[in-house]
Specification:
This protein has 507 residues and is mostly helical. The chain is built from 22 helices and 5 strands.
Length: 507
C-alpha cells in the first residue's frame, strides 16, 4: 500500500506557518557563535571575488566544504545582501523546509495528520533548532539535504536522492557515507544497484579532491590540514586526549538531539532494523520509509561515534545532535503512536507517560532557550570590541578598502572572526594566523606588516595565544603592548577578548 499524500492546500498552509514563525529569526536572532562568524567571513570573501569577476575554482577550498558558503555568496552577489544576512537566510529557509519534510515523513509513517502536526510543531518551535537555524552555519542546511535524500529514497526516486546526497556531501563530510548507504538501500528495495546513482554520488569526493588539488597542488591536503588542526586542538586542550570527557560529550550530544526525542528515535530505529526483514523492506510505503529513516539515523550516529573514538573528532558539541533531533522526530512520534495504541486500555498509564515526556521536553526547551539567550547576551563583548576597532580605524583612515598604493594594507591582527565581521572593516585590513604559523616574534611580525593593533583571544593555533599568552592576563609586564580594552565573558561561554595597541617601546 502506498503512503498517503498531502493536498496542495495543505502544503501551502505548512509553508505559510513555517515561514511566518521562522523568517523573523533572520533579523531578530543574533549570529552569536564563533563558527557562524567564520562562515560569514568565508561568504564575504567568496562574494567579493564573485562581484569582482576574479573568482576561481580553487577559491572553493577552505576549512569547511564549500556548498553552503558558495550558495550564500551567490545570494550576496545577486541581491547585494549583507553576507551575514545571506548566510542566515539560507539557514532559515533550510530550517523551514526541514519542518515541511518532517511533517511529510511523519504523516507517511503514522497515517495521521495529528501526529504529523505534532512533529512539525515540535521542530518548528524547539528553541535549540530555532536558534541554530538563525545562524550562518551548516547544521540546518545539511539536515535538510539529508531529509531530502531519505524522502526521495523512500519514494524510489534514486537519482533525485543521489543528487541530494551529493549536495549534502558538499556541505558536511558526514554525508559521504551515502556513497555506501544509498546503493545498499537501493539494493534492499529492488535487488539492484544503479551505476548512474553511484556515479552521481562519486561527484562529491571527486569534486572536492579536484578543488583541493587546484588550491594547494595536493588532492588530499584537506585531510592532512584537518589532522594538523586536530593535533593543535589537542595540544591546546590536553584534557581532550583520550576519553576522560566521554560523559560530557555524550551529554552534549543528547542535549542537542533532545533527551526525549533521541532515546525514543534510537529505540524505534533499533526495533525497525531488527524486525523488518530484507524482503519486507522491498515493499513500497511505510515499511521502507521507516527502514530508510532508521538506517540513515544509525549510519550517521555510527559515523560520528567512529570519528570520536578514532579522535578525528575529539569533541562533540551539542549542535552535532541537531541532525539526530530532526531525523529522529518522525521515528520518535511513530514510536509514541504505537505505544499509545498498546496502552489504549490503560488510560491512566497512558496519561502518566505522556505527562512525563511533556515535562522533560518542556524543561529541555527552557534550558535550550536559556542557553540561546546567554549566547546572544555574551556576544555583546564582540560587538563592543568591534565597535572600538571601527572607531579607531575611522579616526586613522583605514576603515575602507585599501588604496592601490598601499603595499601593506593590514592594520590589526585578529584571529577572532566575530570581531572581524562585526567591525564592518574589509578583511584585507586584518592579519590572521593562517599562512603565518612559522612566525616566532609577534612584535617583529607586526612591525614588518605595518600593523599596530592586536585582538587577543585564547583560540587554538592563534599566534598571540601561542607566542604571548601573557596578553590574556593583562597587567603591567606587557612589553610593547598597551591595553586599550578588555571584554570578559560573564558566563564563561567563550574566551575573553583583549584589544591592544603596539607601541614603539621594547621591553
Amino acid at each position: 500500500m502506498r503512503p498517503p499524500r498531502l493536498a496542495v492546500s495543505e502544503w501551502a498552509v505548512l509553508w505559510l506557518v513555517a515561514l511566518g514563525i521562522r523568517l523573523p529569526g533572520i533579523w531578530l536572532v543574533a549570529n552569536a557563535h564563533g563558527d557562524a562568524y567564520s562562515y560569514v567571513d568565508a561568504i564575504a570573501e567568496m562574494s567579493d571575488k564573485l562581484s569582482a569577476g576574479s573568482f576561481a575554482f580553487s577559491d572553493l577550498f577552505g576549512f569547511w566544504l564549500p556548498l553552503y558558503q558558495f550558495v550564500s555568496a551567490l545570494l550576496v552577489s545577486a541581491s547585494g545582501m549583507d553576507p551575514m544576512i545571506a548566510g542566515k537566510t539560507v539557514s532559515v529557509l533550510c530550517g523551514v523546509a526541514s519542518a515541511i519534510v518532517v511533517f511529510d515523513l511523519t504523516f507517511k509513517l503514522t497515517r495521521d495528520r495529528r501526529w504529523a502536526w505534532l512533529a512539525f510543531s515540535l521542530l518548528l518551535l524547539e528553541p535549540g533548532h530555532v536558534f541554530l537555524s538563525a545562524l550562518s552555519m551548516t547544521e540546518t542546511s545539511h539536515a535538510f539535504l539529508v531529509l531530502c535524500v531519505i524522502r526521495y529514497a523512500a519514494l524510489g526516486r534514486w537519482h533525485a536522492a543521489a543528487v541530494c546526497g551529493a549536495l549534502a556531501g558538499l556541505v558536511r563530510i558526514d554525508s559521504w557515507l551515502f556513497l555506501l548507504l544509498l546503493p545498499v538501500l537501493q539494493y534492499v528495495r529492488g535487488r539492484r544497484i544503479s551505476f548512474s546513482v553511484v556515479l552521481c554520488l562519486l561527484i562529491t569526493p571527486v569534486a572536492w579532491l579536484s578543488i583541493s588539488y587546484a588550491a594547494r597542488g595536493d588532492a588530499f591536503v584537506y585531510f592532512s590540514e584537518r589532522a594538523k588542526y586536530v593535533q593543535a586542538y589537542l595540544q591546546f586542550e590536553p584534557a581532550r586526549r583520550g576519553y576522560s570527557l566521554i560523559g560530557q560529550d555524550a551529554f552534549a550530544l543528547i542535549t542537542g538531539a533532545n533527551p526525549v526525542i533521541f532515546p525514543l528515535a534510537l529505540l524505534a530505529a533499533g526495533l525497525i532494523l531488527w524486525r523488518v526483514p530484507w524482503n519486507a523492506s522491498r515493499r513500497e510505503g511505510i515499511e521502507f520509509t521507516a527502514f530508510t529513516l532508521a538506517a540513515t539515523f544509525c549510519s550517521l550516529l555510527g559515523f560520528l561515534g567512529l570519528s570520536y573514538l578514532t579522535q578525528s573528532q575529539p569533541v562533540i558539541w551539542d549542535r552535532y545532535g541537531t541532525i539526530f533531533f530532526v531525523l529522529g522526530l518522525p521515528l520518535a512520534v511513530r514510536q509514541v503512536q504505537q505505544a499509545a495504541r498498546a496502552l489504549s486500555a490503560t488510560a491512566r498509564l497512558q496519561f502518566s507517560l505522556a505527562t512525563l515526556l511533556a515535562v522533560i521536553f518542556l524543561a529541555h526547551a527552557v534550558g535550550q532557550a536559556t542557553g540561546a539567550i546567554v549566547a546572544i547576551a555574551d556576544d555583546a563583548r564582540h560587538h563592543r570590541i568591534a565597535a572600538e576597532i571601527r572607531r579607531i580605524a575611522t579616526e586613522e583612515g583605514w576603515s575602507g578598502r585599501p588604496r592601490a598604493d598601499e603595499i601593506l594594507p593590514a592594520r590589526c591582527f585578529c584571529d577572532d572572526p566575530a570581531v572581524r565581521v562585526l567591525s564592518r572593516i574589509p578583511s584585507s585590513r586584518f592579519l590572521r594566523t593562517p599562512g603565518h604559523e612559522d612566525v616566532t616574534s609577534l612584535p617583529d611580525f607586526l612591525d614588518q606588516q605595518g600593523a599596530r593593533y592586536v585582538v587577543f583571544a585564547a583560540i587554538e593555533r592563534s599566534l598571540p595565544a601561542k607566542l604571548l599568552p601573557v596578553l590574556g592576563r593583562g597587567g603591567s609586564e606587557l612589553g610593547p603592548f598597551k591595553l586599550l580594552r578588555v571584554e570578559r565573558s560573564p558566563w564563561g561561554y567563550g574566551p575573553d577578548v583583549w584589544l591592544y595597541q603596539k607601541t614603539n617601546t621594547r621591553p
